[in-house]
Design goal:
- One of its GO terms (cellular component) is nucleus.
- Belongs to the peptidase C48 family.
- One of its GO terms (biological process) is protein desumoylation.
- The protein has 197 residues and is of the alpha/beta class.
- It has a single domain, classed as Adenoviral Proteinase, Chain.
- The chain contains five helices and seven strands.
- The protein has a five-stranded mixed β-sheet with strand order 1-2-5-6-7, sandwiched between helices.
């Protein structure tokens, strides 16, 4: 029996052990759950999603960042999700923990269960032990910055991910810092693209 993933203290810790999932992942996973009419359809959806990632994606990283769109599922439009709010889910495979960071606390806590169900299937397919139970924590509002507008959720998501990847306190910024963070992201992206020219 395969006993991976290894415990966190057996691996190098830090930014190199973080994997950021595409923004499409949770949307497709949610559609798989909400539109699947039978277990075999959900399994088919899981298998399709598993092909998106190289082997070891879910087991070889200390933390996996999942952007989450909390929009309305339009079942009459081929399962598209229409929404405007983003939050961040973080999977910690070594401790079997799923954490949800939402500066507005609008994201349903049941979304963590959707990810947990997928992870149980992934662990079973990989032959890993200990994947049956995943702890879940909706990070309380007093431990994360509070978003007070309706347009900055993407910036909050990026800033929270940056704090976590740098082992900084997530509460190290607030709504009043968003304009400065937005400009810093713009500068960073411009420098990246200019360097490639």
């Amino acid at each position: 029996m395969n006993t991976r993933p290894m415990r966190g203290d057996q691996r190098d810790r830090g930014q190199g052990n973080i994997f950021i999932i595409t923004t499409f992942f949770f949307t497709r996973l949610r559609l798989c759950h909400e539109l699947g009419k039978a277990n075999d359809e959900i399994t088919e959806g899981y298998n399709a999603l598993r092909r998106w990632f190289p082997a070891g994606t879910w087991s070889d990283h200390e933390r996996i960042f999942i952007p989450v769109n909390t929009g309305h599922l339009n079942k009459d439009s081929k399962g598209q999700i229409e929404g405007v709010h983003w939050s961040l889910m973080v999977v910690e495979p070594f401790t079997k923990m799923i954490r949800l960071y939402d500066p507005r606390h609008d994201t349903p806590s049941t979304y963590m269960q959707i990810v947990a169900d997928f992870l149980r299937y992934e662990w079973k397919q990989q032959g890993f032990q200990g994947g049956e139970t995943w702890q879940q924590e909706y990070v309380p509002s007093n431990k994360i910055p509070k978003q007070t507008d309706s347009v900055s959720c993407g910036i909050f998501l990026c800033a929270i991910a940056d704090c976590l990847s740098g082992n900084m306190e997530v509460n190290s910024f607030g709504q009043g810092d968003i304009d400065e963070i937005r400009k810093a992201i713009e500068t960073l992206l411009r420098n990246v693209y200019l360097c490639k020219k």
